[in-house]
Amino acid sequence: MAQLLMPKATAVWLVENTTLTFQQIADFSGLHLLEVRGIADGEVAVGIVGLDPTANGQLTREEVARCEADAEANLALRQAEVPDVPRRKGPRYTPVSKRGERPDAISWLLKYTPELSDAQICKLVGTTKPTIEAVRTRSHWNISNIQPRDPVLLGICSQTDLEEHLVKARKRRPEAVAPPPPPPEPALETKPEEALDAETLFKTRDAVA
In whole angstroms, what is the distance from residue 53 CA to residue 50 CA? Predict the structure, then answer.
């Protein structure tokens, strides 16, 4: 069964480049309707580059035009032809021309994808944990010139790799821990003199009876 590549990036492109309804985009991408609205409002998918589904063969221009003309129609997904690219093991190699931009990419990832671990950022950007920590704590030697910039736009990593690491990071996120129950209230203790008064009261009542 065909599956949509990079749903969020595709939804970004459809919001920005078509007149499809939010519901049509949500149904096609598998996102929640409110999430699509958030993309349109600039509150969701900040910094994610839109992916044209017509360029990778998952949609045709005719299919988009058909659904733009009919708000009740659903987009039909086609099977994309994705080349099988072998994955390299080990740290990512960053070209010399891009190495000066790595701190900017690190700053962007720390700001917009806080769920990523330092190890994941190392793999995406091809950097080291001390460099990440220096950018995080603003102790980097060039911190005054570092600006958060999307590593995908910089050409340091691909949108596919970034999405895969985000999916893994979200699966690893711990469940919310329920707060501990409040401690039981201490039992009220009866003072000896109070117990004595109660006993005297009962004896007096019995005598009167």
Answer: 9
